[in-house]
Write a structure and sequence with these properties.
This protein is 32% helix and 17% strand. By secondary structure, the chain is an alpha/beta fold. The protein has one domain: Aldolase class I (TIM Barrel, Alpha-Beta Barrel), CATH 3.20.20. Strand 8, helix 4 (184-197) and strand 9 form a beta-alpha-beta unit.
């Protein structure tokens, strides 16, 4: 596989985008009170702001990058970027009436995003079926979360997070259920409850394409602002290797669902993850991103990074993509997005609106 990025070596990156790409892969030496560990991914990182932009980056003692007095340094040289850890939210100190910590119901992502997995189990989690980069049930096994979050408790936590910590939007994802709706109906109930408790709070939902595309309209009527239908790769060979169960949902079903979702939610209120580093040809990945943008779907390009508890780590020993590959793909997809007049920050809610797990916001997309 060639990334087309030229003959760059592992010398210190020269630009802010190159630096952001590098620390997305190599991490930083610092502490962050808000961290995401385990779960469905894509990262197992600390949440900070870098140059004023949200970022989720690995906290690594072996990183060449050190944050000193709020500045990013490399070999003692100040790189001209402020780095500020996201503060621990006040709502983490509260519990439900039955004593469940709010932190087990929903977590803070970035500075102002409330994120929750409404069903922490997945019908595809058997090792023969599981997405090899996913650890959705590991946090449940560790006792860090609940198997199912009810609409009432999510509404309670969301109201507190808005009141105490200024949360501005919500992300609700779900493990895939055995039903034809693939979990969308429970998402709709949860969205409805949260919007009743905090009218006007934007909510993104994330799920597989439901078997009946009319369900997308049900989600919109429940109050969902935007939606993520995440394919991770547009290459069927890559999908079969990395997502053996999920790959049986044909790509044609994704394209049909994306088209209907754009009709229902509007242009640039629909997104999908594309993971860099799974083996997909970079030119084909960028071409697929172009096709998505033409349809009105935001391709949220994120580096694959090995996540503890996943088959990619425990069985495959897989590693992250090279800096050259990630920077090349990010730059080219950002060009496609700018040409299509699509920015993540224009989404009402969700991962692209936050941007922390990608480097696209640093590239102006």
């Amino acid at each position: 596989m060639s990334c087309g990025a030229g003959a760059r070596t592992e010398d210190a990156p020269a630009s802010a985008l190159s630096t952001r790409v590098d620390i997305a892969l190599r991490g930083v030496r610092m502490t962050a009170p808000v961290r995401r560990t385990g779960g469905a991914g894509p990262s197992d990182d600390g949440h900070v702001t870098i140059g004023g932009l949200d970022a989720a980056v690995p906290m690594r003692a072996d990183s060449p990058y050190l944050v000193r007095e709020g500045r990013l340094t490399l070999d003692g040289a100040d790189l001209g970027l402020d780095v500020t850890p996201v503060r621990r939210p006040a709502f983490y100190d509260l519990t439900t009436a039955d004593g469940t910590p709010y932190e087990k119901v929903a977590r803070l992502h970035g500075r102002d995003v409330l994120a929750t997995t409404v069903v922490q189990t997945c019908v595809r989690y058997d090792p023969a079926e599981r997405c090899r980069f996913c650890a959705i049930e590991e946090s449940l096994t560790a006792g860090a979360t609940l198997a199912v979050k009810t609409p009432a408790v999510l509404a309670e936590v969301a109201a507190a997070a808005v009141r105490l910590d200024g949360v501005r939007h919500v992300v609700m994802t779900t493990g895939t259920s055995a039903g034809t709706d693939r979990g969308a109906r429970h998402l709709a109930r949860c969205v409805r409850a949260v919007r009743a408790a905090v009218p006007g709070l934007p909510v993104q939902v994330q799920c597989e394409p439901p078997g009946d595309l009319a369900t997308l309209g049900d989600l919109h009527r429940a109050g969902t602002s935007s939606i993520g239908l995440h394919v991770e790769s547009l290459d069927d060979a890559v999908r079969r290797r990395w997502m053996p169960g999920k790959s049986r949902v044909p790509l044609a079903d994704y394209w049909a669902a994306w088209a209907e979702a754009v009709r229902v939610f509007g242009r640039n209120q629909v997104s999908t993850y594309l993971l860099v580093g799974l083996g997909e040809d970079p030119d084909e990945l960028v071409a697929g991103a172009q096709r998505l943008v033409d349809l009105g779907v935001y391709p949220f390009v994120v580096p694959f990074r090995p996540l503890a508890g996943t088959l990619a780590v425990d069985v495959d020993g897989a590693g992250a993509p090279s800096r050259e590959l990630l920077e090349d793909v990010t730059r080219r997809v950002a060009d496609v997005l700018r040409a299509g007049r699509m920015r993540g920050s224009d989404q009402m809610a969700g991962c692209a609106a936050c941007g922390a797990c990608s480097v696209l916001s640093q590239a102006g997309a």
